[in-house]
Structure prediction request, 71 residues.
Amino acid sequence: ASCYDFLSLLNPKNAIISVGNDNFYGHPATITLERLIQICPNIGLYRTDMLGTISVYKQKNTINITSSKYN
Prediction:
């Protein structure tokens, strides 16, 4: 979900976008990325088409996000 009200309410720190490289649907939509950055200017964007596998780990009160891309 990426509607304005939803993002404003949550104010996420990170967004993980699962999308295939060079997909013919044109995802993610430009408007979605613009909205994320407008509402949450310091958001961390993690895209699988650019970063490969994205892993999220929680350790006590900390969330760690890592990525690894295989050629």
About this structure: The chain has three helices and four strands. The first strand starts at residue 14 and ends at 17. The chain has a mean pLDDT of 92.
